[in-house]
UniProtKB/TrEMBL annotation:
Belongs to the ammonia transporter channel (TC 1.A.11.2) family. The chain crosses the membrane at residues 49-67, 73-94, 106-129, 135-154, 166-195. GO terms for molecular function: ammonium channel activity. InterPro entries: Ammonium/urea_transptr (IPR029020), Ammonium_transpt (IPR001905), NH4_transpt_AmtB-like_dom (IPR024041). One of its GO terms (cellular component) is plasma membrane. Residues 1-217 form the Ammonium transporter AmtB-like domain. It is found in: Membrane. This is Ammonium transporter AmtB-like domain-containing protein. Its main location: membrane. Keywords: Membrane, Transmembrane, Transmembrane helix. It holds the Pfam family Ammonium_transp. It is a multi-pass membrane protein.
Length: 255
């Protein structure tokens, strides 16, 4: 819902361009999800919920810079690439790289956001349509000759301007990377003065239970309690949650 809102809201007006941005967002995301699941099934023989979510995220990240300035067919192509290239870097490159194995990236942000985001920025420079750029920027700017995707540049005989746009996209990617490294580092330096940036080895062995007193992703507090938790009872809000006690094979007594 949020991604639909900020991609569709980029033009700051209710327009054809805003509608196209919403449509492209869902088309690219759905294509990326399916691509990721197909690769999971082809390589591992099984699809997974986590894989589906990762495919969705990479599709959303990839289409964001291009949502309102590319045609639907381009959104599909971007979805195929966003569901396959980050999959390859995550499932193949990451597992073989000793350096990446040392990085504590539990949410795989490098692949779902950095790789997919850079991919989206580059592909925007390839597929940006002059006509859609005119809708986005308005008729006061000569966008037909200013903002031209590389593929349209070949078609229009404006190859130089197409390469110029790709160069602008690459420059933007470098700026964002540098900005994020600096900003995130400063944020971490401040946060570590208040709370540790990493849980202790003991707490990590226990997991979320140690930090929050409840199991992650347990709906309505129905997570099992661990005996070595620092918390004595499982409480979801003001509701005392009954904890299961084993009685026998296949039987559980609620107390």
């Amino acid at each position: 819902m949020g991604w639909t809102g900020f991609n569709g809201g980029d033009p700051y007006v209710v327009s054809i361009d805003a509608s196209l941005a919403v449509l492209n967002t869902h088309v690219c995301t759905a294509t990326s999800l399916l691509t990721w699941l197909i690769l999971d099934i082809a390589v591992f023989g099984k699809a997974s919920i986590i894989g589906a979510v990762q495919g969705m995220i990479t599709g959303l990240v990839c289409i964001t810079p291009a949502a309102g300035v590319v045609q639907g067919w381009a959104a599909i192509i971007m979805g195929i690439f966003s569901g396959s290239i980050p999959w390859f870097t995550m499932m193949v490159v990451h597992k073989k790289s000793e350096l990446l194995q040392k990085v504590d990236d539990t949410m795989a942000v490098l692949h779902t956001h950095a790789i997919a985001g850079c991919l989206g920025g580059i592909m925007t420079g390839l597929f940006a349509s002059p006509k859609l750029n005119r809708l986005f920027y308005g008729y006061g700017v000569d966008v037909d000759s200013t903002y031209v995707g590389l593929f349209y540049g070949f078609h229009m005989g404006e190859v130089r301007k197409g390469f110029r746009q790709v160069g602008i996209q690459l420059l933007g990617i470098v700026f964002v990377l540098v900005f994020n490294v600096i900003a995130t580092s400063l944020i971490c330096l401040v946060v570590q003065l208040i709370v540790p940036l990493r849980m202790s080895d003991e707490d990590m062995e226990i997991g979320d239970e140690a930090a929050h007193g409840e199991e992650a992703y347990a709906i309505w507090g129905q997570g099992d309690k661990l005996e070595n938790s620092r918390y004595g009872s499982s409480v979801y809000g003001d509701l005392e949650v009954p904890m299961p006690k084993p009685r026998g094979a296949g039987q559980v007594e609620m107390t």
